[in-house]
What we know:
mainly alpha; LivM-like; globular; transmembrane helix
Amino acid sequence: MKSYKNKILIQNTITYALVIAAFLLIQILMAGGHINSLLKGILVPLCTYVILAVSLNLTVGILGELSLGHAGFMCVGAFSGAFFTHVMAASIPNPQLRFIIALFVGAVVAAAFGILIGIPVLRLKGDYLAIVTLAFGEIIKNVINVLYVGTDASGIHISTKDVASLNLAEGGKVIIKGAQGITGTPKMATFTIGFILVLITLFIVLNMINSRTGRAIMAIRDNRIAAESIGINITKYKLLAFSVSAALAGVAGVLYAHNLATLAATPKSFGYNMSIMILVFVVLGGIGNIRGSVIAAVILTLLPEMLRGLNNYRMLIYAIVLIVMMLLTASPKAIQIRERWISSIRKPKTKEEA
């Protein structure tokens, strides 16, 4: 048992060390002027995608349920966080403090949606669960696209028609403008804040996995009937994992919203393509492998930008890299070769070999 705990501690330390080392390397390169403005612009989205990949792996890899609604939880967190920032501008003049509180607001609202969606949805399995969660993400996006929200002295006004139907008093302010979304959100998100949120996400997920709760969740994943027979509350632990995953997606959404001048619920930002892309990070990094999700999210986010010089071929190369990575991580023959290679490295030398 002690050796197992030591092994887990070493693995987690390696994960944290890799993330910290990458952050320091980027800071050194930025200080030396070796990173162009294009790459600087994707550093915050990079942190966002890492948080999304790690949080989705909690549902897909640890809980063992296929969810395609992660972009929906991100969307809920993004709009609730940005809305809070605008509404509380007069009450909390400090933008940094508003942003920090907005992160908690986005997490809580996304977690609440996770619980509401999870109660009926987690009774389903496999493809059925994937379809329902995918539908949830599309519903959220389309509802926000027809939503008009404004505030005045009498409170918050909501409409699904147009701005005029809000009937705002003089001095009132329209915050959510239907398909135009939210404009004028302070750009408080920085790479340093994103890095801190990535570390917090890793800390929450890794500690949850290696706790008694995580072992119960994995027992449900491996054999639901056996887990239930020894007294594990199936509904409780599935909802817990699903809501924590949703809350972290909400945090990623708030970070994403405060990196943009205009936030709109477009298909590119919060559609099913985003959910599929996050799932690709999880699958290519290894289902259940948290460190792999981090590495896959970083590589697959940076790769299209690094290949921008090969404009005519970059998406072809991107697709080839996806196929090769999939073969290397999922092919039984490739896994066997990799394990044999790792075991040959770790194998201690005999006296004759020495």
